[in-house]
Amino acid sequence: MELFISIAVLVISANIDTFVLMLPFGVSHVRICAKNIFLIAGITSAFTYMSMKVGTAFSQMISLQAANLVGGLTLVLIGLYFVLKFCVHQKKKEQEDSGNVSGLQMQEERVMSTVEAVVLALVLSINNAGIGIAAGIAYISAFYVSVATFLCTWICIKLGLLAGKSLMGRLVTKYSVFLSGILLLALGVYECLGF
């Protein structure tokens, strides 16, 4: 049960960005075929697995308790960074008094190309690298996280495209960084305390 909770929190926090990134594509009626969704999810999962293995290799140089502490503290720091980033962004928005939520331009209805899918997958993978390394240090299972990442990425792409057409999409976009930060903070504290 503890493993499931850790994996669920980690994967959800890492994939909120995937969901949010799909919103403007949904608004612009950009379709992503099953092959490209598979490609995005596969690359993201493979990158997550590799980054976690790097973290696990590092953790073998120190004790289990120290590894959990280092991994947990790293997740806490990443979570704090996300929360502070959200707060700074909100303050800037208030000062600028800007109502423009998305800087992406509307596009005509089209199908995403394979090249675009690969680029998108690499962006998402790099975004998850720090979280993956920290999770590996904390001895969270790389295999299960990678499988869960694949499934969650697929679901988040589908849901993000659908939600992009609704008002809820803008609300999630506004608070996505904050939600990711809170989830990572919670997981980091959980790993530090070693429940």
From TrEMBL:
- Keyword Transmembrane helix part of the UniProt annotation: yes
Task: Tell me any Pfam family this protein matches.
Answer: Mntp
Entry keyword annotation includes Cell membrane: yes
Give TM regions.
Answer: 6-25, 32-50, 62-84, 115-137, 143-164, 171-190
Q: Which InterPro entries match?
A: Mntp/YtaF
Task: Classify the source by domain of life.
Answer: Bacteria
Query: Which controlled-vocabulary keywords does the entry list?
Result: Cell membrane, Membrane, Transmembrane, Transmembrane helix
Annotated protein name in UniProt: Manganese efflux pump
Task: Name the source organism.
Answer: Diplocloster agilis
